[in-house]
Amino acid sequence: MNTAIARRTLLALGAAALCTAAGLASAQGNTTPLRVILPVGAGSGVDTIMRSAQVALSKALGGQPVVIENLPGAGGISGTQAVVKAAPDGNTVGVVSNNHAVNPSVFKKMPYDGIADLTPITMIGGSPFVLVVNPAKVPAKNAKELQAFLKAKPGAYNYGSSGNGTIIHLAGEMYMEAAGVEVRHIPYKGMGPMLADIVGGQVEMGVGAVPAVQGHLKAGTLRAIGVMGKQRVASLPDVPTIAEQGFPGVDVEGWFALVGPAKLPAAQVKRLHDAIVAAFNDPEVKAAMARQDNFIAPTTPEAAAQFFRTEQERYARLVKKANVQVE
Distance between CA 280 and CA 296 in Å, rounded? Predict the structure, then answer.
């Protein structure tokens, strides 16, 4: 009898020790890094935004390391596919933007279903776009002057984009169509290389997210022609929208959202959703977003899923109108 009691006592003590160890591990946070895949190049608007929130996100996750990985290519498909293939364990997520809703309309065949093969976690916010030119190559200072400059030599000038069929490509097409001008499209693998070549004079113009072009505008290596959305932005108060310059059909801005692999458990969705909300409510992150003219508007996972469907329908009409397709 005494032996049996002793054995039960030891088992109970062992179980208690295991529980205590598990509790300590939980209190110390997950030591497996959270892999945040960005399907865009370094220097892009989304890259700038997520790196601004990297430290705050790690803090919101209880000290779990956050590793940001850029996997650009194929209009964001390469990076997003890596998220689709990841284990649904809550340690791999991705940030998608407008291209996620554009791709089903511009690519004849997609390697995944952008809604069924991912778990929406939350919309995060958005960024305004601005049409920019190389001031040494283009004398125009506004949308009407740019229109006249381009019409004088049809097909003689180039505009860059972050990739064929991307939202940056379509944003450029919006202006070109509205202005009735003919310009050659030069696709790049990401906004960073595109902006580098506009600054270097290899291409004359392009559309960029405000956070990605702010430094160049301040340095004078790029000139802003007009904001692509409905409203002016605080950091560029003297730059009117393209619409208010006489091209009312031009209206597009960037957005970004957090997604995980399909079948991500509800508990992990909540954990990641709450961490993103906390990170982007951090005072330092909010100040950084304000400086970059980004707006932050987290949503429920259900609202994010509905937004994806609505955007897919919207861009399907735009792609058909612009006659854009990628093999």
Answer: 7
Which residue in this structure is represented by tokens 């006489």?
246
Average pLDDT, integer, range 61-87: 94
Domain CATH code at residue 219: 3.40.190.10
User: How high is the pLDDT of residue 165?
Assistant: 81
Looking at the DSSP assignment, which residues form a beta bridge with residue 165? none
The set of residues, in sequence order, having a beta carbon less than 8 Å from that of 258 and lying 6+ positions away, is 93, 94, 95, 121, 122, 124, 272, 273, 276
Q: Could you list the residue range(s) of the whole structural domain that residue 149 is in? A: 129-245
- Asked if residue 38 lies in contact with residue 68, where contact means CB atoms within 8 angstroms, the answer is yes
164 and 119, same structural domain? no
Q: Which of 160, 136, 133 is nearest to 147 (CA)?
A: 133
Nearest of 105, 85, 88 to residue 39 by alpha carbon: 85
Q: What is the pLDDT of residues 184-234, one digit of tens each?
A: 999 998 888 999 999 999 999 999 988 889 899 999 999 999 999 989 998
Domain count for the chain, please give it. 2
The answer, as to whether pTM is greater than 0.85, is: no
Please identify, among 210, 245, 280, the residue that sits at the C-terminal boundary of a domain: 245
What is the Cβ-side half-sphere exposure of residue 109, based on CA atoms within 13 angstroms?
Answer: 2
Report angle CA 178, 143, 147 to the nearest 5 degrees.
65
Q: Are residues 268 and 233 in the same domain?
A: no
8 confidence band (pLDDT: 50, 70, 90): very low
Q: Are residues 225 and 289 in the same domain?
A: no
